[in-house]
User: Which sequence fits this backbone?
């Protein structure tokens, strides 16, 4: 039972939802735009296709994902008092995306704000909601990652345009009951701002520019330590994880990482194959799909970990709703 307005001993994810636009952009399609091949993209990154929003905005996709999360939770807009949208690609900045989502769904008077930490945005937003609810500053939150990266993709740059897609994923987060264990573990969050120049979106309608090999090398040295520490803070051994949902940047990062850490019993999210890199949407999108397909058992510990522009990183172990 929730204590309205009072502090809570912890939070949990009640339900997830996701949305992807209908238009598919395959590797074959990209060979007609830039000098690339299906073989190169598949072997170097693992992507086969990604989705492209045509007339839909970041707010439209965020609204659709959040609406599904609410329906999956069996809740209504009246049950929500906080909306956080993680995004780095929204062209529309005022009103912020969170207010647009709240208005679209008919959520009245929520605390509503956007948060931009690039590809780690969902995990930062989840931690922020968790902290707000535990402090008694919110009761039940919609935490959303939504991106229209194709708006900020340079389709003359073959090193980046093959990577990105559009999507949204959302979670409903609420206080646990007094006799329930918290379902959102302690966050590990941080950044290495000295490396900010290796992944940028700058200027009016600027494009994503990435020094891929440098970011890749950073993931190899840093991620194993950071994820091991995230598990340690949650009191969970990597071998006890039921799910491993890392930011979907490259299968050559994700799969060896899960193996190196010893996450041998975890279902490893590989949504990048069908969705590409969707930045802040990638983790909630992948998690929502694993749940929808029945690939994760309710209650199992699942690692969420995001990393990207900043360079920023954040993660936590959650109990699967
Ligand atoms: O989401 C935020 C966090 N981001 C990441 O974690 C991304 C980390 N980085 C990566 O995943 C990889 O660096 C990429 C997937 C971005 C690139 O893969 P890579 O194996 O590091 O390729 P590269 O940039 O070192 O390029 C290797 C070769 C180059 O040719 P030469 O110089 O060896 O002749 C590139 O010009 O591949 C060439 N190349 C391509 N060839 C065909 C680069 N892009 C393409 C392409 N098609 N699309």
Assistant:
């Amino acid at each position: 039972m929730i204590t309205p307005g009072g502090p809570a001993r912890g939070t949990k994810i009640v339900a997830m939802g996701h949305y992807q636009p209908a238009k598919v952009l395959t590797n074959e399609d990209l060979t007609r735009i830039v000098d690339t091949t299906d073989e190169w993209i598949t072997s170097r990154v693992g992507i086969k296709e990604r989705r492209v929003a045509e007339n839909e905005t970041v707010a439209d996709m965020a609204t659709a994902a959040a609406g599904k999360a609410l329906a999956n939770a069996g809740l209504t807009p009246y049950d929500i008092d906080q909306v956080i949208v993680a995004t780095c690609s929204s062209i529309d900045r005022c009103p912020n995306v969170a207010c647009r989502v709240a208005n679209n769904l008919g959520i009245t008077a929520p605390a509503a704000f956007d948060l931009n930490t690039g590809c780690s945005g969902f995990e930062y937003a989840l931690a922020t909601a968790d902290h707000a609810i535990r402090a008694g500053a919110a009761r039940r939150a919609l935490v959303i990652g939504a991106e229209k990266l194709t708006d900020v993709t340079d389709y003359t740059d073959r090193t980046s345009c093959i990577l990105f897609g559009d999507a949204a994923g959302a979670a409903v987060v609420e206080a646990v009951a007094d006799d329930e264990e918290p379902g959102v573990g302690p966050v590990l969050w941080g950044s290495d701002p000295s490396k900010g120049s290796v992944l940028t979106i700058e200027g009016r309608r600027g494009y994503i520019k990435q020094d891929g090999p440098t970011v890749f090398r950073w993931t190899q040295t840093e991620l194993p330590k950071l994820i091991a520490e995230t598990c340690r803070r949650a009191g969970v051994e990597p071998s006890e994880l039921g799910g491993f949902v890392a930011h979907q940047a490259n299968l050559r990062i994700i799969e060896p990482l899960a193996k190196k850490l010893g996450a041998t019993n975890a279902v490893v999210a590989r949504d990048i194959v069908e969705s590409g890199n969707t930045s802040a949407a990638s983790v909630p999108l992948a998690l929502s799909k694993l749940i929808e397909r029945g690939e994760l058992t309710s209650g199992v510990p699942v690692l969420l970990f995001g990393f990207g522009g900043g360079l920023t990183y954040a993660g936590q172990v959650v109990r699967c709703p």
Remarks:
- The domain at 188-319 is CATH 3.40.47.10 (Peroxisomal Thiolase; Chain A, domain 1).
- The chain has a mean pLDDT of 97.
- The longest strand covers residues 166-175.
- The two ends are 17 Å apart (CA to CA).
